[in-house]
Amino acid sequence: MKFSVNDAIMKIRNTDPIVILGHIFATLVFILYFLSPDDPKESIPSPYASRFMWTPMIPIMIGASIATLTMAGFQNKLTPITRLTSINLVFLLIILSPQFAEPSPIAEDGWWFVQIADRYGEYGNDHTEGYLSRMLSLIILDTFSRIFPGSPPLVAAVCGIAVSCLWISLVANSVKDSEFVNTWGVPTFTFVCFLMVSWWSPLQYTAQMLSLLMAATVIHWSPRSDIGKFGSYAILALIPTCHLQTSLILGSILITESFMRVERSSLARKQAFVLGSSFIYWNFTVAKFSFIRQFPGELGEIVEFWHLLTPLVFAILVSKIVERKFGIRDGDIWGGKSGTTNLSIVIGCILMLPLMFFIDSRMGAARLVPRLLAYSIVPFCIWFMAGLSLLNKKIDVEFWDKKKAVTFFAVLSIISGSLSSFAHVNYSSRTLILPSETHKCWEMTEEAGIVGLMYEHSRETNIVLFSHSMLPMSDNENFQYFERLGDEIAIPQVFFLEQFPGSGTYFSAVLETADLDSDDFTRAGLPADLYSDFYLAGEVPGACRFWVDSNDIELLDPSLNWGRM
User: Fold this and answer.
1) Is the pTM of this model over 0.85?
2) Residues 201, 203, 205: CA angle, nearest 5 degrees
3) Contact in structure between 25 and 90 (CB atoms under 8 Å)
4) Pairing of strands 535-540, 544-548
5) Above 80 in pLDDT, residue 395?
6) Which of 53, 140, 243, 389 is least buried, going by the fewest C-beta atoms within 10 A?
7) 436 close to 153: Cβ distance less than 8 angstroms
8) Which residues pair with 511 in a beta bridge?
9) Angle at 52 (CA atoms; ends 48, 54), nearest 5 degrees
10) Cβ pair 253, 340 in contact under 8 A
11) φ, ψ for residue 553 (rounded to 5)?
C-alpha cells in the first residue's frame, strides 16, 4: 500500500500544473453542487436541475476547467491517463454534474427506469409496459435496490454515472491511436457534448445506455482468445434482453463487417448469428407481446420467426461466399483491423436510418434517428479531429510564431470553456431531476386508500392522472384506470363523460409531482385547474401530493392494498 500511495504521489507531481489546475476546477464544481441547498419540504420544487445552481461560481468553474484542459491539450501536456480523465470530466461537467446535488437519476428516462424497475420487482413481466420484457437493466437495478432497501433513486444515479463513464472511457480509448487525439481530443469530445445537449443525451441509467455500452464493447474489441470470443458471444446474447433498437443497429453493423473481407469478418459473421438468434428467440417468446406492437397495423400478427431467420442466414452465407471468392483484403480499409472497421459502423448506421426515420415519423418526434450518432461516435470523432487538424494546417505558416500561436490557442480554449458553461446552464434548465423522495409517492397513495377508488371496490370508473415520468404500482387488473399526462399523450374523450348526472367526469384523482404542470393538462385537452378544488388525501413533503375529487373521498380505503405476485 505504501508503494501505491507513493507511486500515485509521484504521478501527481509529474503531472503538468495546467492539467492539475483543470482537475481542481472540476472538483470544485462537484463540491459546489454537493453543497447546494436541499429542496424545500413545504412545497413541491421545480423539477429542473438548474434549481441546484445556487452560485454563479458553478458555470464559471465549468468554463475554467474545460478551457484549462483544452489548453493543456493544445500544448501537448496531456498523458494518456490525464487525457482519458479529462475527456470524462468534460462529459461529467457539462451533462452530469447536477447529479452530485441530488441522489436521484438525472433526466426523464433515468427516473422512468427507476419506476419500471420498481414495477418489475413487484409484478415481474406483466405486459403492462414493453421494457418489462427486456429486463436486463431492471434486474441490475432491482438487485442492488434489494441489497440496499429504500435506495432505488441513489442506485440508479450511481449506476448511471458508472455506465456513462465506462462508455466514455471505452470510446476515448478507441480513438487513442489517432495522430490528432493529443491536440484535438478534448475539443472534439466537448463538441460531442454540445450535440448531446442540443439534441439527445444517452448519459443516464436506462436500457439504452446499458445496451450502448455492451454494443460499444463488441464493436471496439477484437478478442483473440477463445475465452474472449465466448465473452463477446455472451454479451451479444444478452443485448436483446435489454434493448430492441440496439440489437437492430448492432446487427446491421456486424452484417456489414462480415462483407468487408478483413480479418474480423469471420468473427463478425459468428457474432451476427449469435445476436440474431438471441434476438429472434427472445422476441418470439418472452418479449413477443411488446415486439408485435412495434409493427404497424396487422403486420405484427402475421410475422413469424422464419421471416427474420431466413434473411439473417442468407446474408451470412452470401458474405462467406464473397470472402471465399475474393479472399481477405491485403491492405487496411478505413478504421483498420482493430475492432470493427469504422466504415462498417458508418454503413451499418446508414442502413438503419430509413427504419429509424420511419419510426420517428410515426411517433411524430425525432427520437431514434439522433441515437445513431451514439453508435457511430468513434468514426465521427476521428473524422472531426482530422478535420480540425486539416483546418489548422491551412493557416498561413507565417502566422505561427510562438506568441501568436499561444494567443490563438488561448482564445480557442476560452471560447470552448465559455460555450461549455452556456451549454451546461441551458441543459440543466430543461433537464429533470426529481426529488429522490418521489420514489415514495405511489406507496403514499396506497396508504391514503387509492385502491378503494378501483371498480371492484367502488363500482365506478375512477381515472387517476399522473405525470409522464411516473409509472403506477397498481396490479394488472387496475392498470387501465391510470392515465399518463404529457409526452404527447392523447386522452380519450370518453373520460369526459359523467358517471351519472351531476357526478362530474371520470377523472377522480391526480398524483401531483414536480414534473406535472398546467401544460400537461392543456395538451391533453383538459382544464389546467382540473384538481383545484380536489381534496388533499396525502402527500410526501417536498415531492408529491395526492388529490381526490371531493365526491370520491368516501371511496378511499387505507385498509386495501394492491394484489402483488
Assistant:
1) yes
2) 125
3) no
4) antiparallel
5) no
6) 389
7) yes
8) 546
9) 135
10) yes
11) -60, -40
pLDDT at 337: 44
Pairwise CA distance, residues 87 & 188, whole Å: 9
Backbone angles phi, psi at 452, to 5 degrees: -65, -20
Grid coordinates in use for 65?
476547467
Number of other residues whose CB lies within 10 A of the CB of residue 230: 11
pLDDT at res. 453: 94
What residues contact residue 506 under an 8 Å CB cut-off, 6+ apart? Answer: 461, 462, 463, 494, 495, 496, 497, 499
> What distance in Å separates the CA atoms of residue 101 and residue 408, rounded to the nearest whole number?
36
Residue 338 pLDDT exceeds 80: no
Buried b (16+ CB within 10 A) or exposed e, 240-252: bbbbbbbbbbbbb
Alpha-carbon distance 393 to 180, whole Å?
A: 12
HSE-up (13 A, CA, CB side) for residue 316: 20
The conformation of residue 385, written as its DSSP 8-state character, comes to H
Q: What does 35-46 look like in DSSP terms, one character per residue? A: TSPPPPSSSPPP
pLDDT at 180: 87
Cβ–Cβ < 8 Å for 243, 197: no
Q: Copy the grid coordinates of residue 467.
A: 405525470
Distances (CA, A) of 37 to 2, 40, 55, 298: 39, 9, 11, 53
Q: Is the distance from CB of 491 to CB of 524 less than 8 angstroms? A: yes
Question: How much is the pLDDT for 11?
Answer: 63
What is the arrangement of strands in the sheet containing 463-466, beginning at the earlier edge strand?
A: 482-484, 463-466, 507-513, 544-548, 535-540
349-380 per-position pLDDT tens digit: 999 999 999 888 877 777 888 889 999 999 99
Per residue in 205-233, pLDDT (tens digit) is 999 999 999 999 999 988 888 888 999 99
Quick one: pLDDT band at residue 556, thresholds 50, 70, 90?
very high
Report the Cα–Cα distance between both ends of the chain, in Å, rounded: 49
Q: CA torsion, points 300, 306, 307, 312, in degrees to nearest 10?
A: 130
The residue assigned the cell 470530466 is 89
- CA 233, chain centre distance (Å): 24
Q: Which three cell numbers stand for residue 379?
A: 468514426
C-alpha cell at 529: 385547474
**DSSP 3-state helix, strand, coil percentages of the chain (rounded to 5)?**
65, 5, 30
Given a contact cutoff of 8 angstroms between Cβ atoms, the answer to whether 41 and 49 are in contact is: no
Q: What angle do CA 246, 169, 96 make, to 5 degrees?
A: 80
Question: Parallel, antiparallel, or unpaired: how do β-strands 535-540 and 507-513 relate?
Answer: unpaired
| 132-160: b (≥16 Cβ within 10 Å) or e | bbbbbbbebbbebbeeeeebbbbbbbbbb
Strand partners, 464: 482, 509
H-type helices in 451-534, by residue range? 455-458, 518-523
Tell me the three cell numbers of residue 488: 404527447
